[in-house]
Amino acid sequence: MAARRIITKPGDGLTPDTGSQVLTAQQRAELAFSQRGDEDEDEDEQIEQTSADRIEAMLIDHSDSARAVVKLYRIAGAEKKLVWCDDFAPADFEAGGLGMIRERYGSGEYQIRLYATSAHDKLFCIRARENISIEAVRGLQQATQFQPQQNNELAQVVQLLAQGQQQILAALSDRQPAPDPMAQMTQMLTMMKLMKDATASEPPKERTSLGEIVEAMRMMRDVSEEFNPNKKEEASDPLMAMLPQALSLIGQGMQNQQAQQIQQPPVQHHQQPQETENEEMNMQTLAEIKKEISSLVEKAVAGVEPERAALPVYEELPDEGIEILKSDEWFDVLKMVCPEVAPHGEWFGKVRAKVLALLAEDDAGVVTVEN
Hints:
- With 371 residues, the chain is of the alpha+beta class.
- Among the domains are: 53-137; 209-261; 281-364, no CATH class.
- It is 63% helix and 10% strand.
- The protein has helices at residues 25-61, 90-105, 140-174, 181-199, 209-227, 231-236, 238-241, 243-263, 275-302, 306-316, 319-326, 330-337, 345-364, and strands spanning 68-76, 81-88, 108-117, 124-134.
- The longest helix has 37 residues, at 25-61.
- It is rod-shaped, with a radius of gyration of 63 Å.
């Protein structure tokens, strides 16, 4: 820094003959304060030039070099070890600046080296170097610190959602569809009809005329023995004389009839109707049963007495419906056909008991007339 020269007038503390400086205490304090201010200004200019202007001047000084490259190193650890980061062309580094370094490699301490060929010695070596310190953007370091933890939590949430979806899909695939109550009812009616046809008793066989003849001949023989105990007298009777021949003919006829019965072809079972006709009949019967049950539900809601409601059921319900009432699972079947019967189990039980009582009276040959 250039020395300051203070010009004083005579009488201001300087001797006019010698020109030597004689300062008062106040003047010395003002001089020290002004010198300190000049030093602070020089120091600020030097710091500002160190961070930016020196790098720019370094690039400008070697911009005309035929071969020039900017190498960036990170100063790592307490040993101040240099770790290479990247190489830049001078023009690219000048365009990006320090912001490019912070954006690519983050905060920290770096050393910038300029390698170039000198026009005098033609050597490619370090022509300039500069150490810089870059501060992180406020909030960026904290966000970077918590980012791995947030990513882990997000991955756990995604994994839990995926597991839940897999469990839902597995449950849906294992779940069996609910059975159709109408289809079950149709199948049960078909089975009941087949069982009824199979267990129906065959009609009694009528007595053949040949059996009647045999019975009559036996009666004639018994009568003849009572009134004619003497065999000789039997021979004299022409009717009794023909009796042995008639018995032999009757015996042969019985043998022939038995042979014909043995050779008869097997009894052919009734052919079942076609599936479509059977389904139509079952659906029609099921519709009638459902209609009757719905009517009973309305009567139960209206409070009609069960004994009074049982008479139309006894008169109009199809045979398949009667078979349902006779079964032990009658109420479950009614709920399958018409779920509205569930709250009226006691009322339907009384109706069923009355209907079964009327059917039992029919079987016993008793006719009940209700007014």
